[in-house]
Amino acid sequence: MPANSTSDQAAAAAAALAAIPPLDKMSLVAIWIETLLYGHIVMYLGAAYVLVGNGKRRGPALLVASTLLFALSTGHVAVSLRQLLQAFTNPAITSMPKGSSLYFLNQTDPLVFAGQALYLFNVLVQDLVLIWRLYAVFNSDWRVPILPLILEAINQVTALYSIVKFFHGTALEDPVLRKYGILSWSLHLIINIGVTAAIAGKIWWHGRRTVTVRGHNAYAGVAFTIMESGGLFAGATFVLYVFFINTATGTDALVGVNPVTQLATLSPLLIIARVGFGLTHSGGRSQLSSGRAAASHSEAVHVNITRSQVSDYPSGDLYPMQAVKSEAGIAA
């Protein structure tokens, strides 16, 4: 009987090990992708040049936020590197069967908690920048950001509560924390998709009154650029949400947090750099060319071109979103 009991325990232990997903390989690949995305240091330098280039400071708050995002993403890369060293070089871990996978599964490890906390803080800063941009685009109307801020507060509280409980030993399968996790991911998606769409929609609507010679919406390129750049992070968050709700423990989503942390930094930097350097679909540079082409038409066309600026900084002095406002009338 004791022999049978020992055999049963060994079989149960073997089955439990076999049920553990290959978190070692998953984490290795995810962190490798994270290091590739950390190349956004180039994007940070470009955004910083846009904000402080030519000796003129445009929106110091946005520069501080961008620097903070970059610092948080740098800290997350450092934590990820330390995790790899622990998981694959520590003899106490590598000597155990599936020791590396068990290490990444252990939510009570301080490095795991630090990585998740850095992700949450990074997302918080990114979301606040997004909400602040919404506030500025809607003419600093204090009522506009109230709902997004409430949703963001609920999102952060539930997410932070969950990782703290995990750090203190609560199982990943805990049904209450699973509900909190689904709520947090859902709110995160609502905030990112809803606020980004509202900003782009407001800019596009404003651009309907600013038409080029060819009849194009002067701000449509900026609106599409914001949707595209913001869509990177929103799309990645949606993938994590799907991973979380389709696994019993949500480990796939937790591993995927590594590269997505870098996207949380890349998304706002990409908007600043693309708009600041005029790299939009049909930004001010291309529309200025349209005006010149129309002015050289064989028919007598009077073109009144004025440079206008869209800013997402309340004072109006952030970074230029160049556009051209044209009024054309054919002379008799």
Average of pLDDT: 78
Helix/strand-derived category reads: mainly alpha
Strand line-up of the largest beta sheet = 1-2
Number of strands: 2
Coarse shape: elongated
Low-confidence stretches at least 5 residues in length (pLDDT < 50)? 283-310, 313-332
How much is the radius of gyration in Å? Answer: 25 Å
Gap between N and C termini, in Å? 108 Å
Helical amount among residues, as a percent range?
A: over 70%
Our count of helices gives 12
Describe the structure.
With 332 residues, the protein is mainly alpha-helical. 70% of the residues lie in helices and 5% in strands. The protein is built from twelve helices and two strands, in the order H-H-H-H-H-H-H-H-H-H-H-H-E-E. The chain has helices at 2-19, 23-37, 41-52, 60-89, 91-94, 99-105, 110-137, 146-167, 175-207, 220-245, 251-276, 284-295, and strands spanning 301-309, 322-330. Strands 1-2 form a two-stranded antiparallel ribbon. Helix 8 (146-167) runs antiparallel to helix 9. The chain is elongated and about 80 Å long.
